[in-house]
Specification:
heterodimer; A: about 500 residues; alpha/beta; Rossmann fold; 2 domains; six-stranded mixed sheet; 18 helices; about 25% strand; globular; disordered N terminus; B: about 350 residues; mainly alpha; ABC transporter involved in vitamin B12 uptake, BtuC; two-stranded antiparallel sheet; 2 strands
Chain lengths: ~500, ~350
């Protein structure tokens, strides 16, 4: 099966088999092609070439609806729920029970209760979805997949926001489903889960199937090796650690939403400080609060001794701080404008581009040319719209924005989301060069190998709090993972 | 699919298909305007022999300046991803307040005609700009959607304009006002045209050569990215609507000079026509895309169509039907263009 996006080969001749009654785990780094593969299987997208066979017969999955009718149910990471509707309305969306052409609310309520009871989810069917927590929404999403009796169930990191107890329930459900002959495709980043519920595991890297192996007998070390590939030493540069004065200091930071609780961190010049943790652990919010993007309830933030607590981004930028957001489409770039305009945007208010009332166009041009060369923009056409470049080049343009003005402290928030290995290596080199040039770097990442390899010091967060700090040789996967999840003792 | 046969097709492509591809390219790069212009010129020349005369085309330009000025203001709002439905109200309120103030000042000091004109213009433009300030505060500070804010303000302003005049045109301005700003010429060029050229040039400089201009595009292109790049997005939005108000107010005074009365009923078609001019001039309704030159051309095109319809003796009621249809066609064409771009991206 092949899936091509403009300029990107997202899946390259992938063969994948699912047997009835097995839990087949898809394992791989971000951007390895897992999500693309399941979106093809769930009917959300169509393959460029190749075919999908169900029980030996070729099927065309033109839409999610069609896939559902064939018994393929998927739970995606991005919730496909309508926030304004209730739990039961969401469960039956597109398949509402009817009586004489009108909605049959009683049947809907009854069946919704039955589904939720079967799953043992403590949810009120009449509650509107927007009032639910993330974990509860995840439960609704799972319940939706179980509404029909699926023959293929696709779960994309379903436990990312569930508690231990809810996870247990889900696993029990998966076991019950597989006992009835349902084939489950399960995406996870968590090693422990592979062993716990997996039958087989397929490792994807750069859109290719690297190996399919038995889940119980394959060691974790081997899996990581397969996932990252032998290029691991080439991807991660060795970055000199020459800590200088403290450039970013956060003390007792608590955000208004309680997503960050009593966090204190320090970043020195010439060092890379990582924050690791699960999605939703509050690690991103720490960086955002520093840059004035999260309301601060308590605590203070200093840049090189100057307090910037609660100040807007433009004030933080004047002090030498720069935040690079995780989602370039959402917060990073103006897709319909040129690379030049995007790159120089943070620098328009100051000399040399600002000259009196006006913009110095030639200065702007030369800066954008310089930045395009610096990040190796391909093709090197800074006047083209950013939206017309590949994802990797878009990410490079985002990086270049931080070079448009003098920056002493960089806040990288998931800097390698959805980019290929080559760009990834380029971004790591970029981060390394910034650090070696004497800047302080705070690196927030859900990509564990990334923070493990790049950080000189590493904080681990769980539920808004800092659980542990490691430095130097103590930064190992084992050490970090111990603090990643809820601690039983706590 | 069979690659070799496709290459053969490429070579043996008939000239008709090549022409079609050329038209497609032009459509993608230039938008719908050149095509509409061509159609309009052919149709109206066929309907009326006078249409293409130099005299008539000068008329078109002179009649279009009011729409050009308002459309440039509208463009700023569209660039930031909003729009301004109150431009018509601003034109009307400016006219009424300006005329009333001018007439009053003229009564108070019958000899100081130019003093009265200055005071009147100042009062009118201040009133109109104030409406823009109100829009700006609503949109930027209170996060009211531009649709609701400007629609509400349009009603408020129109009510005030009617209340001030009681629905009756305001007379009593010094005759010099109309003589100079309505019908005057400098070196053979009508004064309103000169004003419009100056405003268009200033708008071009603002949008292309100042940081604020770039911020309009940034806020409309991606407001979160703009915020993260250290841009004061609220201030930018506020200035957008204030400037749109200012430009509409200038138009209001020029129209007052032309009509030689202050009227509460002028400008009713301005919101539709100015948005149409921008959209036809390839300003994106989603924000972040648009050029001053194209907007001027878009406004000129609408002026051309109105003029052509007048010459062809099409009833004014039917003219609004044509304008509305054109606006919708332009939006559809814009969608088609986006789809074409998406399909050709490889």
């Amino acid at each position: 099966m092949v899936k091509e996006y403009p300029g990107v080969l997202a899946l390259d001749r992938v063969d994948f088999q699912l047997r009835p009654g097995e839990v087949h785990i898809l394992f791989g780094e971000n951007g390895a092609g897992k999500s693309t593969l399941i979106s093809l299987l769930a009917g959300a997208q169509e393959p460029t070439s190749g075919e999908i066979l169900m029980r030996g017969a070729p099927v065309k999955l033109r839409s999610v609806h069609r896939a559902r009718a064939l018994g393929i149910s998927a739970v995606f990471q991005e919730f496909s729920l309508v926030p304004q509707l209730t739990v039961e309305e969401n469960l039956f969306l597109g398949a509402e029970p009817r009586k004489f052409g009108f909605l049959d609310r009683q049947t809907m309520r009854r069946e919704a209760r039955a589904i939720l009871a079967r799953l043992d989810f403590a949810l009120d069917p009449a509650e509107t979805v927007q009032r639910l927590t993330r974990a509860q929404r995840q439960m609704v999403e799972i319940a939706k997949a179980f509404r029909i009796q699926p023959s293929v169930l696709i779960l994309d990191e379903p436990t990312a926001s569930l508690t231990e107890r809810e996870t247990e329930q889900l696993f029990a459900l998966i076991r019950a489903a597989t006992a009835q002959g349902v084939g489950v495709i399960y995406i996870t980043h968590r090693m422990a889960e592979i062993r716990r519920i997996g039958s087989r595991v397929t490792v994807l890297r750069d859109g290719r199937v690297i190996a399919t192996a038995d889940a119980e007998t394959t060691s974790e070390v081997r899996l990581v090796e397969l996932m990252t590939g032998r290029v691991i030493n080439e991807i991660y540069p060795v970055i000199r650690h020459t800590p200088g004065e403290v450039v970013l200091k956060v003390e007792g930071l608590t955000s208004l939403t309680q997503s960050v609780r009593d966090v204190s961190i320090e970043v020195r010049a010439g060092e890379i400080v990582g924050i690791a943790g699960l999605v939703g652990s509050g690690k991103s919010e720490v960086a955002r609060a520093c840059f004035g993007l999260e309301a601060v309830a308590h605590g203070r933030v200093w840049i090189r001794g100057e307090e910037i607590t609660g100040q807007p981004p433009r004030a933080a930028m004047q002090k030498g701080l720069f935040y690079l957001p995780p989602d370039r489409r959402e917060e990073g770039l103006m897709m319909m404008r040129s690379c030049r305009e995007n790159m120089v945007l943070p620098a328009l208010r100051d000399a040399p581009i600002r000259r009196g009332l006006f913009l110095d166009v030639s200065q702007e041009q030369s800066l954008s040319q310089r930045l395009a060369r610096r990040i190796n923009l391909q093709p090197p056409l800074p006047e083209r719209d950013v939206g017309h470049f590949s994802g990797g080049n878009q990410q490079k343009v985002l990086m270049a924005k931080s070079l448009a003005r003098p920056v002493q402290v960089f806040l990288f928030d998931e800097p390698t989301t959805g980019v290929d290995v080559t760009t990834r290596a380029a971004i790591y080199r970029f981060i390394g060069e910034m650090c070696e040039a004497g800047a302080g770097v705070l690196l927030v990442s859900s990509d564990l190998p990334e923070v493990l390899h790049l950080s000189h010091r590493l904080y681990v967060m769980y539920r808004g709090r800092i659980q542990a700090t490691f430095s130097g040789a103590d930064i190992t996967e084992q050490n970090v993972l111990t603090y990643f999840f809820e601690r039983m003792a706590a | 699919m069979n690659p070799p046969s496709e290459t053969k097709q490429e070579v043996a492509r008939p000239p008709a298909r090549r022409a079609l591809r050329l038209i497609q390219r032009m459509f993608i790069h230039l938008g719908v305007l050149p095509f509409l212009l061509l159609i309009a010129i052919i149709v109206f020349t066929a309907l009326s022999g006078n249409f293409l005369s130099g005299q008539n085309l000068t008329n078109v330009v002179r009649q279009s300046v009011y729409l050009i000025i308002v459309s440039l203001g509208q463009m700023l709002a569209l660039l930031t991803g909003g729009f301004d439905l109150s431009v018509g109200t601003i034109v009307a309120l400016t006219s009424v307040v300006g005329a009333t103030a001018m007439a009053a000042a003229s009564v108070a000091s019958p000899d100081g005609a130019w003093l009265a004109i200055s005071l009147g213009c100042l009062a009118g433009i201040a009133a109109g700009t104030l409406v823009g300030v109100a829009n700006g505060i609503g949109v930027a500070v209170f996060n009211v959607s531009p649709f609701m804010m400007t629609l509400g303000i349009a009603s408020v302003g129109f009510g005030i304009a009617l209340y001030i005049t009681g629905g009756v045109p305001v007379y009593g301005m010094p005759p010099q006002f109309g003589q100079v700003f309505g019908f005057g010429r400098v070196a053979g060029v009508p004064v309103p045209v000169i004003v419009a050229v100056i405003i268009a040039a200033l708008a071009w400089v603002l949008v292309n050569r100042t940081a604020l201009g770039r911020y309009f595009y940034a806020v409309g292109g991606n407001v979160k990215a703009a915020h993260l790049s250290g841009i004061n997005t609220r201030l930018t939005l506020f200035l957008t609507y204030t400037l749109c108000g200012l430009l509409s107010a200038v138009c209001g005074m020029l129209l007052t000079a032309r009509l030689e009365t202050g009227e509460a009923n002028i400008g009713a078609s301005m919101p539709l026509e100015s948005i149409a001019a921008c959209v036809i001039g390839a300003v994106s309704l989603r924000g972040g895309v648009g050029r001053v030159g194209n907007v001027v051309l878009g406004a000129l095109f609408i002026g051309l169509v109105q003029n052509g319809m007048n010459l062809a003796k099409i009833e004014s009621y039917l003219q609004t039907v044509v304008l509305g249809t054109l606006l919708i066609l332009a939006v559809i064409a814009d969608q088609l263009r986006l789809r074409l771009i998406a399909s050709m991206r490889d």
